[in-house]
Amino acid sequence: MHRRTALSVSVALLAAAPLLAACSGGTRPGTAAVVGGERITTSALQAQVNDVRTAQNRSEQGARLIGATAGLERLKLNKMIQTAVLERAADDAGLSVSTKEIEDVRKAQLQQVGGEKALAAAALEQAQLAPDQIDADTRFKLLRDKLFAHYGSQDKALVKLGEAAKELHIEVNPRYGRWDEKQILLGDQQTPWITQKTMPEQAAPAGA
């Protein structure tokens, strides 16, 4: 898979609206970040946030969930950038994830938690995911784990992720924080590469 193709796949999975639009470089009004010469628009970022807020508002625990996710914009932008980084590193390693693999994980999730409603509630509560974001998050986790396995350790894979991030020349609109090249994350967000998990690995999406 070519690098541009990999990034395009990531865009299609993360949201119905395009996440990345052609850009001549550098942040400008309406731009949340520039990744690999393409921009993540503020409208695309807001669409991700709005999906979660809509799901939270429909929940009986809505007020608590919203109160606990004041930094949702930064969290989502962090994940969007890291997805592009992961796609680049996976493409360099010749790795990909099939639709069937995603479907198989979803079947296991549904069987373990007891159905779509329970899965949606768990994803929203534990990983700040709207229902239509679960499959993209599953793909992220599968691709991440393949990268770890391919290089034999998380540390070696993180080196490759760092190299991929440098190749993409990431720039972030200051309103969302500062991109940390060493940690491969935005500001003080936790990294999902190693530590963030929600439900058991085989049955639930990783943290956003």
UniProtKB/TrEMBL annotation:
- Signal listed as a keyword: yes
Give start-end of the signal peptide: 1-21
Which keywords does UniProt give here?
A: Signal
**What Pfam families does the record tag this protein with?**
SurA_N_3
Do the record's keywords include Signal? Answer: yes
This protein's species is Streptomyces polychromogenes
Read off the PROSITE patterns from this record: PROKAR_LIPOPROTEIN
Q: What is this protein called?
A: SurA N-terminal domain-containing protein
**Which SUPFAM superfamilies does this one have?**
Triger factor/SurA peptide-binding domain-like
